[in-house]
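Input chain follows. Return structure tokens only.
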Amino acid sequence: MKANLATTTDNRVRGDALIELVRVSRSFEKKRDVAVKIANTMGLGAKEEIVQAVDRVDLVVRKGEVVGLVGESGCGKSTLGRMVAGILPPSSGSIYYGGKSVSALNRAERRAAALAVQMIFQDPFASLNPRMRVKEIIAGAPLYHGLVRRSEVDQHVDLMMERVGLDKTYKRRYPHQFSGGQRQRIGIARALAVNPKLIVCDESVAALDVSIQAQVLNLFMKLRQDLDLTYLFISHDLGVVEHLADRVAIMYLGRIVEEATTAELFSKPNHPYTTALLKEVPRLDSRHREFQTIKGEIPSPINPPSGCHFHPRCPHAMSRCRLEQPKLMEVAPGRLSACHLNDGK
């Protein structure tokens, strides 16, 4: 069922918001190499390089929905997902869980929030400890946090493996003894083992074969229905997101540039970047048209363009776009976009 948003003037959704990001940013300082260090000792004052991975993002994930977060590689979507999952702290801004600021939670509340939000990573092999058996991988967190007793571990692991479509007799095997799709199912079982409410899926099917992708996506939707799960589904593949998400947020160089329900975004994109992305999606009804890619390369986050970050690649760019950053504003009920073209509508 598609979500029906009710936004306020500051782009925040109240009520059943499970996770809410308000003006969240995350920057990284590029490590100085030997040449920079020598220059600084000589008093040349080499400038520090700051990567602005996420730039003042507002985003809401409501209970029970699937939110797709889409953008090209390097746009900051994985960093955003790690902040939602609590793996990375934001450099500025606030993250709310269940209406409360995460930074203001007490120890017990922070622990509960950390368990409630789990993450599934892109590489199903690198995200699993190769020295641990499947049983240890799945049971580690629930056992550590006291969610299961030692006498209940085997039963809990069996249930998780059956839930994701794995043979429970394989629980004493190591990750290298499984295929890529099976390893991703182990990662899903590990996330489910602590009874989460929200799962952040970071390109979680990108490394899999197409046929296996379909199986894993079907598993995600079945788990959503069976366990009343909420997903933040991060992907560069709009075709996958179209079939999975209730609502989609488009990200470009650290900023959200458009947000809408899936049906509205795919039928009538508002932002030029969204339009360009959709033109790259192959479709059977348009197989004879010439394939078009977005012109130019995504700029470096170390030195992003002024104004609208997309203006060097935008066919509609005006002088204003080079000077002034467009605000993410409501252009229709429940629909947000950050483009100066909307000012004239």
